[in-house]
Description:
This protein is an alpha/beta fold.
Amino acid sequence: xxxxxxxxxxxxxxxxxxxxxxxxxxxxxxxxxxxxxxxxxxxxxxxxxxxxxxxxxxxxxxxxxxxxxxxxxxxxxxxxxxxxxxxxxxxxxxxxxxxxxxxxxxxxxxxxxxxxxxxxxxxxxxxxxxxxxxxxxxxxxxxxxxxxxxxxxxxxxxxxxxxxxxxxxxxxxxxxxxxxxxxxxxxxxxxxxxxxxxxxxxxxxxxxxxxxxxxxxxxxxxxxxxxxxxxxxxxxxxxxxxxxxxxxxxxxxxxxxxxxxxxxxxxxxxxxxxxxxxxxxxxxxxxxxxxxxxxxxxxxxxxxxxxxxxxxxxxxxxxxxxxxxxxxxxxxxxxxxxxxxxxxxxxxxxxxx
Length: 353
């Protein structure tokens, strides 16, 4: 029992390592790991430390600030940053031996020729990376790239997680048509879904993210990996509620008969989405207990009438775990597993095994 009545997120680092091994196999033995957003909410520093033991050498983050934080603990790892550069941050990249991803021709011209960089080719996301016009301009003047310090070309899939990915084949065709003009450069293409479902990535460096953390990128397919995270929250109080009583803010739930309601210490400030009000559930002692009333900032009510004899203060409600998958929690919230993990708040105690 959790004596201080805090929610606890238990993170299985060996499970992350197992998922990495499986994804690396799909990548033909060449794979880095995406650890942005603090390792998708699970703790980037701990994830990196564990994956280093598996032989992972390249780690990807979204921002320079994320890279600088990791660099303090890991002075020698290869850290690639997605956000791009300005002239104001070049010295920080150089001083800390960080590898930027260049997203425009202007950034390519700014980056010194003596330090490694990735170059992002946008093939359909319309988010970051060289636009089609910039890509065509670079092909017309290839020395801008061949005389640069770019080591790796990359792109990012739009819909490889869909059952019928309409854009992925076209993206591969466009990307490799460009990349084949620069055979000396490495390639990095596959996110988790790409590694699992795209047949020919031509030996490119894998970039798995969500799959490392136990989520299934394509819900229609069998789960390739093993679960990583278990989130439990304590029961703070158990009350007998009469017929006709309301539960929670705005009286959105009213009992039709006497019920036993447990107040569980997890709310939207901790990452339990308010959208699960009156429709989600948790697991207590093996029983599915529906959420009743509105999710509050710090707590939520659940109906434990069917198990009133065993539900006591300090009992643990499983929100994510062996009996309730990450995907199920996401479905209840009307969102995706990425958002569930990265929304878990700082009040939740992290426990690593």
